[in-house]
Amino acid sequence: MPIYEYICPGCKSKFELLRPMSQASEKAPCPHCHIQAERALSTFACFSKGESGLTSSIGGNSCSSCSLTSCDSCGL
Ligand SMILES: [Zn+2]
Questions:
Q1: Which of 63, 35, 62, 60 is nearest to 49 (CA)?
Q2: Which of 17, 19, 42, 69: disulfide with 65, CB 3.0–4.6 Å?
């Protein structure tokens, strides 16, 4: 089973969950405050971009790997 990453809207913590692909888009309960957390998209790619010190040079104003228009939601 693949591992998916979730971000809790309550405590802002990230956690990973091993679950079937069929449940990947479903929300998962935060282990800390037990509210439903949204799945995080490609946070890893955003972090590696930050470590390199570069702002997006690929594709203009959006993160190269996540579907968001900025990395505000994925931890940067
Ligand atoms: Zn939480």
A1: 63
A2: 42
pTM: 0.53
pLDDT (tens digit, 0 to 9) for every residue of the chain, 76 residues total?
899 999 999 999 999 999 999 998 899 999 999 999 999 875 444 444 445 555 544 444 555 555 555 555 555 5
Rounded Cα distance between 26 and 36, Å, is 9
Going from the C-alpha of 51 to that of each of 17, 48, 67, the distances in angstroms are 25, 5, 20
User: How far, in Å, from the CA of 40 to the mean position of ligand 1?
Assistant: 14
Cα of 52 vs centre of ligand 1, distance in Å, is 29
